[in-house]
Write a structure and sequence with these properties.
This protein has six helices and 17 strands. The protein is of the alpha/beta class. It folds into two domains: 177 residues, FAD/NAD(P)-binding domain, CATH 3.50.50; 120 residues, FAD/NAD(P)-binding domain (3-Layer(bba) Sandwich), CATH 3.50.50. Strands 1, 2, 3, 4, 5, 6 and 17 form a seven-stranded mixed beta sheet that branches. It has a five-stranded parallel beta sheet with strand order 8-15-9-10-11, with helices on one face. The chain has a three-stranded antiparallel beta sheet with strand order 12-13-14, with no helix packed on it. The protein is elongated, with a radius of gyration of 21 Å. The structure holds NADP nicotinamide-adenine-dinucleotide phosphate (NAP). The site of NADP nicotinamide-adenine-dinucleotide phosphate has 21 residues, from helix 4.
Length: 312
């Protein structure tokens, strides 16, 4: 068994990295376990315009790098390419299974985030990686001069549709209701953008293909049941997220959708287990709120450890 650490942070996105900064600065022995590399979902966000301090915006990848550098400078230890496979309670501490290693930690902060939902419609699985994507930053450049469809009506769909207009000739934004859910300024930009055609109140029935690649999307109007086929070269789905809470489902309370229930301090129903960011019940899922929740969780986790006496 490895050496007992104070705070194990699972997930290296904005919440986890901010928790790491606060944990390390509180002089807690703090380690971040990350499936891939630090940054989290933000790495695939094309452009972040609402994180304070960057008046012209910043790329998600650059912001993720800056967070990671700051956490490292503060003294947090990074375990990259180290997916945590299980977390269990053992006496007064937790044990994380990381590959062949068993890592004991007095506190765990879960900051595993969320993963994009899939539509589960015909054609989606067949054309995943052949025109169906969940990441405009990663796959957008494949559609230079082409036509793409973006599915969804939230911040992600509108923001990434706008990003895709810089690459593709035309973007079809398809949403299942008359009103978009996105922040008003993103909605306005989409409605008035000459390259974006809106298809409101349409369900997407199928992603069609030709020669092993995406060829179009078949839609049905919710107003009059008529169907239409729009030829597109790529489909980007942004229809919400699912919490990555599997690791703690037997340790603490989750809500009906699987998000981790936490109090304002980031404490879960399991003493010593904290959670922050998109994996939790809080609605406003933004980089700035993830950072704030990461700070709360680490601050209170450190306080909880101090009151129990370090090494107790
Ligand atoms: P979201 O806000 O949950 O929006 C998901 C969208 O997909 C909704 O418009 C929803 O329609 C639609 N949808 C869901 N299931 C569908 C289905 N089966 N078929 C068709 N459409 C479906 O998700 P998100 O846009 O990924 O954002 C997630 C969180 O991250 C939000 O809190 C958001 O504010 C945040 N975020 C923030 C920024 C930013 O601040 N720049 C950027 C990206 C994301 P309905 O509206 O009808 O439910």
């Amino acid at each position: 068994m490895a050496e007992l650490i104070d705070i194990a942070i699972v997930g290296g996105g904005p919440a986890g990295l901010t928790a790491a900064i606060y944990g390390a600065r509180a002089k807690m022995n703090t380690a971040v376990f990350e499936t891939a590399f630090p940054g989290g979902q933000i790495v695939s966000a094309s452009w972040v315009e609402n994180y304070p301090g960057f008046p012209d915006g910043v790329s998600g990848a650059d912001l993720g790098d800056l967070f990671a550098k700051q956490a490292e400078n503060a003294g947090a230890v990074f375990h990259n390419l180290s997916p945590v496979e299980a977390i269990r309670r053992e006496g007064d501490h937790f044990v994380l299974t990381v590959g062949k290693d068993e890592v004991p930690s007095r506190v765990v902060i879960l900051a595993t985030g969320a993963i994009p939902k899939k539509l589960g419609i015909p054609g989606e699985a067949d054309f995943t990686g052949r025109g169906v994507s969940w990441c405009a930053t990663c796959d957008g450049p494949l559609y230079r001069g082409k036509t793409v469809a973006v599915i969804g009506g939230g911040d992600s769909a509108t923001q990434e549709a706008l990003y895709l207009t810089k690459i593709a000739d035309q973007v079809h934004l398809i949403h299942r209701r008359e009103e978009l859910r996105a922040t008003q300024c993103l909605q306005d930009e989409c409605f008035f953008h000459p390259q974006i055609e809106m298809h409101l109140n349409y369900n997407i029935l199928e992603i069609t293909g030709e020669n092993g690649k995406v060829a179009g999307v078949r839609l049905r109007s919710k107003a009059d049941d008529t169907e239409k086929l729009i030829p597109v070269d790529g489909v980007f789905e942004f229809v919400g997220v699912d919490a990555k809470s599997e690791l703690v489902k037997d340790l603490c309370d989750l809500d009906a959708a699987g998000f981790v229930k936490v109090d304002l301090n980031g404490a879960t129903s399991c003493p010593g287990l904290y959670a922050a960011g998109d994996v939790t019940i809080y609605e406003l899922k933004q980089v700035v709120t993830a950072c704030a929740r990461g700070a709360f969780a680490a601050f209170h986790a450190a306080h909880w450890l101090e009151t129990r006496g370090r090494g107790a």
